[in-house]
Amino acid sequence: MLSIPNIYTSRHLKYFILVPVLLMLVGIYFSSRIVLDSSLSGGVSIILQTNTTSSTPSIASSIASKLHIPQPSIQRSPGGLQITLAINESLAKADTYLLNFYAYRASYSSSEVNATTLSLALERSPGNKTIEAGLANATSGMNNSLSGMHTSLNSELAELAPFIGSPGASANSTDAMLGVAQGSYANASKVYQQSILNAIGSVVPYTSYSYQQLTPTLGRYFLKQLEYVILVAFVLIIIVVFAIFRSPAPAFAVVFGAANDMVIALGAMGAVGIPLGIASIGGLLMLIGYSIDTDVLTAIRILKRHEGTPEDRAYASMKTGLTMTMTAIVSFGVLFAVSVLTYIPTYYEISGVVLFGLFGDILTTWLFNATIVLGYKKRKDRRS
Predict the structure, then answer these.
(1) Which residue in 30, 115, 312, 360 is deepest, having the highest Cβ count within 10 Å?
(2) How many CB atoms are located within 10 Å of the residue 69 CB?
(3) What are phi and psi of 36, to 5 degrees?
(4) Strand pairing of 73-77 and 80-85?
(5) Do residues 188 and 164 lie in contact, with contact meaning Cβ atoms separated by under 8 Å?
(6) What is the pTM of this model?
(7) How far apart are CA 332 and CA 326, in angstroms?
(8) Are 335 and 344 in contact (CB under 8 A)?
(9) CA 219 to CA 201: how far, in whole Å?
(10) Max CA-CA distance within the chain?
(11) Residue 169: pLDDT above 60?
(12) What local confidence, expressed as pLDDT, does residue 78 receive?
């Protein structure tokens, strides 16, 4: 067990909560500096394994000159470089037209089903004005959707022409149009990827690379879904914790602990430059689990057990919780060290986020949560 003094017998215990609160404010300040990686903002992210010693500004300038684009963002990472380019404007517009094409095609299919159904109904009831009107509307919907598909496809192909040229023949059926729309975008993306890699390779020699391209539309969708997942997680936490303790004080302490750990981790990400992406959000979700574990353990020991004084139970919880947290810190520290040596971006982001959050969890849990729950327990005992 860890040999540490029992801080919960201190007369100045209530002042301990100021430390996590100050960390929360610092985290909020630095979190404004967080940048979204290409998995959420859209764009191209290339990670190179390279030993180049050239300065990042000169590399960025050379790449921008060769590709005729704004200067990319380049960060040195353990073992190489991370290069982030804004999404190509033509590809972004083509992606929007492709999504419009999908929407028109779905509308066309729906109108086609309605038209077929109404045609069969009209055969059974010739001259039925209601069915005839419905069939006319369905046919009009098919024509409008087909026109929209043609317009969207032509607009998409016009945006992709700089990469793949103009198609040799026009497609007539909706299935053929779909094949042209999807195939053209895929081919243009491959051409654009190769042009980027050729330009980078002429500036920076590298041994291996990873390439990731995401459109702004899909990035916004991912971000919205991830925000929804985190919101649902906190709502479920509030419901479960309140059901366990049936009191707002310990429930507030547990929820505040999880939220503050996330704020501290986000602030650290902004301060040291870890981007917010799907991988780092996975780390934040893992952090919620670690935080809830220690917070609920502490609250249950203080409130529901009876051996010794509340201060002794809080102290025992702290020793157990610190042992658990330090074990997790060592585990993620090893993962972080491996990711630094080999620079595996997913592991680097996840382990970095969790490590910062766990250090914040130590201060939040044992200086704020335990103090709040202990104070609530003492007030409850005095009233009874």
Answers:
(1) 360
(2) 15
(3) -80, 135
(4) antiparallel
(5) yes
(6) 0.67
(7) 10
(8) no
(9) 27
(10) 92
(11) no
(12) 66
